[in-house]
Design brief:
alpha/beta; seven-stranded parallel beta sheet; six-stranded parallel beta sheet; 2 domains; 14 helices; Rossmann fold
Length: 369
C-alpha cells in the first residue's frame, strides 16, 4: 500500500514518527510524509524519506496559513493517491481529515496523544465549542488511536463512526536508545555533574501542570540522597523566572535546559520523576525511562500512571501534592540497593510488556491493514 503521514512538528516527526515509518516500510509499504518546516528541517532532510513541507505555528498564527496548508495537502494527496493516511495531534487531525475526505483517501487514521487544552472544556464556552468541533471532525476518520483508557472511554461517548484503537504510547525503539561511555563522560563534565552522585531527573516541556513547582518545593523541603536534575524548555510565560528563583540557593538542583540527546541524560539518571497533572497521552519521557530500566515517580493521573506500578517499579504520588512528594522522597531514602535493583528490573519488564515499538505498532497495523 501507499501510506501518507502528517506530523505535528519537526522534532516529533524526527524522534517519534520516523521509526513507525520504517516499520511500515518493513511491511513493504510505500511512504511519504507532510512535516512542518521548522528548526528540524535540516535533520529531516538527511533522512531517507519522501517529505513535503508545510507552514505551521504553535500559536494562533497557524490560522494565517490554514487555507494554504489545506490546499497543499489536497495537492499532495491528489499527486500521491495514498491508500492510508496517518494524522497526528490537533492541527494535522483537523486539516488532514478534511483534505483526506475531499480527495477520497480510503482509510484515515488519526492519533490523539492526550486532549491538552480541550480538557478545560467545562471551564470555557469557547473551549467547549472547539471540543465539539474537534469531535465532529474526528468522527470523519476511519480509525482514532488513543493512548490511555480514560481518553478511550471519553471518545466512546463522542465518536460513533471511527474504530477506536488503544495503544500504550506512540512506540519506543529501545535499540536506538544507546549512548557511548565517551558521550556519557562528556555529558557529565559539560554539565558540571559528578560520577559519584546519584540523580533524580525531571525531563519534560516545562509548564506548571507538569508539576514543576510542587517538585521543587518538595525537594527543597527534603534531605534526599539524590541530587535533582531539571531538563527541558520553559513553555509558559513567567515560569522560568519563578522556577530559577526557587532553585538558585540549592546547589543540589541542576537546571540543564533543553536536551536534544535524551539518552545521555537518562544514562546518568537513577530515577525519572514527572509529577504531572497535565492532560497526557502517555508521556514519552517515562516510556523511555522504562526502556532504560529507570525507577519511576509520577502521578496517579491518566497517562502517567500507566508507566508505574506503585511499590513495584517506583511510586505514584497525588497530583498537585507537595506532601505526597515529600513522603515518597522519604521512602526512597529508606530503600536498600536490592529493592532499588528490583524496581529497575520491573521497569524494563513493564516496558517489554506494554510499550515496546513492536507491540504498539502491531496493534495499529493489524487493525488498519
Amino acid at each position: 500500500m501507499k501510506i501518507g503521514l502528517i506530523a505535528h512538528y519537526g522534532e516529533d516527526y524526527y524522534k517519534s514518527r520516523v521509526d513507525f515509518l520504517e516499520y511500515l516500510q518493513e511491511k513493504e509499504n510505500e511512504i511519504f510524509s507532510l512535516v512542518p518546516e521548522d528548526d528540524y528541517k535540516d535533520k529531516v532532510d538527511l533522512l531517507n524519506q519522501k517529505v513535503y513541507y508545510y507552514s505551521y505555528s504553535r500559536s494562533w498564527r497557524f490560522m494565517l496559513s490554514l487555507f494554504s496548508t489545506y490546499k497543499l495537502f489536497i495537492s499532495v494527496f491528489k499527486k500521491e493517491k495514498p491508500d492510508v493516511l496517518f494524522t497526528y495531534k490537533f492541527f494535522p487531525n483537523i486539516v488532514g481529515i478534511f483534505a483526506a475526505r475531499k480527495t477520497k483517501i480510503p482509510k484515515i487514521v488519526s492519533t490523539i496523544a492526550g486532549l491538552g487544552f480541550l480538557e478545560k472544556r467545562k471551564e470555557s464556552v469557547l473551549i467547549k465549542y472547539v471540543f465539539k468541533f474537534y469531535m465532529n471532525i474526528l468522527n470523519k476518520a476511519d480509525y482514532v488511536v488513543t493512548q490511555n483508557t480514560e481518553d478511550l472511554e471519553l471518545l466512546k461517548k463522542h465518536l460513533s463512526k471511527p474504530q477506536l484503537i488503544l495503544t500504550h504510547g506512540s512506540g519506543v525503539n529501545s535499540e536506538k536508545m544507546t549512548t557511548s561511555t565517551e558521550d556519557k563522560v562528556d555529558f557529565i563534565f559539560q554539565n558540571n555533574l559528578d560520577f559519584k552522585k546519584k540523580y533524580i531527573t525531571f525531563c519534560s516541556r516545562i509548564v506548571k501542570e507538569k508539576g514543576i513547582l510542587e517538585l521543587v518545593e518538595a525537594y527543597n523541603q527534603t534531605s534526599l540522597d539524590y541530587e535533582l536534575i531539571i531538563a527541558g524548555w520553559f513553555d509558559e510565560k513567567g515560569l522560568e523566572e519563578e522556577v530559577l528563583n526557587k532553585i538558585k540557593d540549592n546547589p543540589k538542583i541542576h537546571y540543564l535546559g533543553y536536551q536534544k540527546n535524551v539518552s545521555n541524560l537518562l544514562s546518568i539518571s537513577d530515577i525519572i520523576i514527572l509529577p504531572s497533572y497535565y492532560p497526557e497521552g502517555v508521556p514519552r519521557s517515562l516510556i523511555e525511562a522504562l526502556a532504560w530500566s529507570k525507577i519511576i515517580i509520577t502521578t496517579n493521573h491518566k497517562g502517567c500512571k500507566e508507566t508505574c506500578i506503585d511499590g513495584e517499579n517506583g511510586y505514584l504520588v497525588e497530583p498537585r501534592s507537595i506532601i505526597s512528594l515529600i513522603n515518597v522522597f522519604q521512602k526512597l531514602n529508606e530503600q536498600d540497593n536490592d529493592s532499588l535493583t528490583t524496581f529497575r528490573h520491573r521497569s524494563r519488564k513493564l516496558f517489554d510488556e506494554k510499550f515496546d515499538r513492536e507491540i504498539v505498532y502491531n496493534t495499529i497495523w493489524n487493525a488498519v491493514k
